[in-house]
Amino acid sequence: MKDDPAITYELREGVAWIGLNRPEKRNAINDALLEALAAAVRRAQKEARVLVIYGHGPCFSAGLDLAEHRAREPADVLHHSRSWHAAFSLIRRGSAAAIAALHGATVGGGLELAAACHIRVADSTAFFALPEGSRGIYVGGGASVYVARLLGTARMMDMMLTGRVLDAEAAERAGLVQYLVPEGALREKAAELAARVKETAPLTMLGVLQALPRIQDMSEEDGLFVESMMAALAQSGAEAQARLADFVAKRGAKVMRPSQNE
């Protein structure tokens, strides 16, 4: 796959870097960008264990390109919404861990894309909103599931009903992003996290990406049983055996007190 005009793709040190590339439109997501993004994610799943999604230009993404969607029949809107769900499910349910590197506007569909990733790191310029309510529409790219599970239903209601905007610090406090860095340090932090994540043992990665999200939808007893099954599977792997042997022999890395930069 060659670079699509709407997406850039670079494989660097085992990490796939996928860039939203409509800076003149603040990386608003239209059908062409969504299709190119899905293709890039499929490629990344084959070539890398970790992918990083970021935005070129002034922001991550200002959301849905409303210029393409002013006159659609309800059935068309439904099918279009489902196409977003399918594209973001490739990220959410894929074999590679996904990191969203966020700066500037991360709004509407851009926030939905960020929420579909597994880890979110933002710099101090990032801000977050769900302006669909003020525009007379409803979210359609997965926010009712992905964003609500991160923020909680009450906070999402607040954002949609009042138009509340969260700055980067508020987003970190609310659990929307896991890492907050100064302006200019975003790519470096994303690369550092990607390097850590790609060292995860394959069966552990499988459990974190595939089992853990599903366990959240199970009853307590079913979830605990699946956890036990996943623990048994992960520990059977050759890499787990080697790492456990290193730990017992005091050759493994120790858990340390976090620094202020973590």
Q: What is the C-alpha radius of gyration, as a whole number of Å?
A: 19 Å
Tell me the fraction of residues in β-strands, as a range.
15-25%
**Count of discrete alpha- or pi-helical segments spanning 4 or more residues:** 10
Bin the helical content: 40-55%
Descriptive overview:
With 262 residues, the chain is of the alpha/beta class. The chain contains ten helices and nine strands. β1 (7-12) and β2 form a beta hairpin. The protein is globular, with a radius of gyration of 19 Å. It starts with 6 loop residues before the first strand and ends in a 14-residue tail after the last helix. The mean pLDDT is 92.
Quick summary:
The chain has 262 residues and is of the alpha/beta class. It has helices at residues 31-47, 74-92, 109-116, 146-151, 153-162, 168-174, 186-197, 202-215, 220-235, 238-248, and strands at residues 7-12, 15-20, 50-55, 97-102, 105-107, 119-123, 127-129, 166-167, 179-181.
Characteristic terms for this protein:
262 residues; alpha/beta; Lyase 2-enoyl-coa Hydratase, Chain  A, domain 2; 2 domains; six-stranded mixed β-sheet; three-stranded mixed β-sheet; 10 helices; 9 strands; globular
Indicate the topology.
Elements: E1 7-12, E2 15-20, H1 31-47, E3 50-55, H2 74-92, E4 97-102, E5 105-107, H3 109-116, E6 119-123, E7 127-129, H4 146-151, H5 153-162, E8 166-167, H6 168-174, E9 179-181, H7 186-197, H8 202-215, H9 220-235, H10 238-248
Parallel strand pairs: 2-3, 3-4, 4-6, 5-7, 6-9
Antiparallel strand pairs: 1-2, 7-8
